[in-house]
Hints:
The complex is a heterodimer. By secondary structure, chain A is mainly α. Chain A has helices at about 1-10, 20-55, 55-60, 70-95, 105-130, 135-150, 160-170, 175-185, 200-230. Helix content of chain A is about 70%, strand content about 0%. Chain A is globular and about 65 Å long. Chain B is an all-alpha fold. The longest helix of chain B has about 30 residues, at about 240-270.
Amino acid sequence: MVLLIVxxxxxxxxxxxxxxxxxxxxVSWGGLLLLLSSSPLFELSISVRQERTNGxxxxxxxxxxxxxxxxLGRALRSQILSLLYGASYLVSAAYLMGGLxxxxxxxxxxxxxLGIPVFYGLGFIVMALTFNxxxxxPAVTMLQIGVVFLSGIFxxxxxxxxxxxxxxxxxxxxxxxxxxxxxxxxxxxxxLSSMIEPANLLEPLLAHVxxxxxxxxxxxxxxxxxxxxxxxxxxxxx
Amino acid sequence: xxxxxxxxxxxxxxxxxxxxxxxxxxxxxATLYPVIFASMPxxxxxxxxxxxxxxxxxxxENVGTGAYSIFLLVGANMWFFVMTALWxxxxxxxxxxxxxxxEDLYLATGSLTWPLVGSGLFSILQCLAKYVxxxxxxxxxxxxxxxxxxxxxxxxxxxxxxxxxxxxxISFMIGAMVLRVKEAFSLLVILQMSFGILMGVFYPxxxxxxxxxWISYALPMxxxxxxxxxxxxxxxxxxxxxxxLLLILCQGLLYIFIGVVxxxxxxxxxxxxxxxxxx
Lengths: 238, 279
């Protein structure tokens, strides 16, 4: 993936010139962020759909066992796998781009961990939104691409046009990703800079609020969807 | 071709049509995916070069054409077709295996070749329709409609049709492989990425190292992709227009031949072994 991105963007840079450091930083760490975000954003919705298509969702949801750990367990399996894939991505990125930048490792890891509840919260909301969509893979993929693109996973916010950056400010995952990148590069956060002041305080604050609020909202949305499906008898429909 | 074979092909074709119409979301998604795939490098490149004009100038210096959006759109479409052939067609037999009906199909008196031909024909026509739709949408979106609304586009469509034959040859090989390999998905993901890198979907193959370039040209879609770009954007052919077309055709027939032989061998091996229903 690293090679594909580097080769795809290389024709846009004059031959004698190197790729901008901000860009190489985003690409080298972007793969890890993409893999970490994929499990909650993609796996949760797809696993529910699979159970529904197989006809086993009704049995699971009508049984007295807790449902949330079941779903989280599913996502955890792919989350562990994505961590392994992410590690191999980082190794190849370091090899292809001449090393990895890591200015403030502990702060970086903290913001990365802070992003995980946001990914899961959003994943539950996506699951609730796409519960009644018959062909779920295209819908979830489109949402995932939108989130990946607007969260600045591969593209630093300072390279994004202002209008797009303004939209990105409404995507919850943007904050932890921007803070993670600013920590590992040792630079200032870019998402809200020149948009709202004081951006340096507001961004971490919003990232923490979102990490607390979004999982709760996600679980509530998911429970409401399941309750509605139970009442209307929609659990068994594939 | 016997009347029975024709009936078999048309029935499979009709079945695929019904299946496609049942899941309409896929039609929209499959048309938009190549545009979205291409949009990533288009936007990244535009921002890297600090604007569309500068991006066009630098791209022309490096690649030989300033119409980078069309260059990338064609590449994204070709990659998507290869992915479709790998995932849909290559996995067709695995899906039958997973749903437990493959044994019935193989134990029936008819040959499986004709249903596969019907399915392949449908898939090729579907790819061509999606290519036209997504190129139109993409070129309107990026203001380059003049590259699509001309007769050269039809010639490019002809090259694509010939190129797709080889892709289906590869998918027969994949079909043969997935009947034997238990975890087919990871294999397909690796193949999908390798095709993306080696086919030159987002850059000219000439930017790859010399040795890798030969592997790239040996893949079924690389020369076709290069030539569609040459027709639409006046970039370079591999040899020249006629020789390239002959090469694509020969490659396609060779891949189909190898694919069918591999599939037959695989089927025979499985029938003798553990049985078709187990996977």
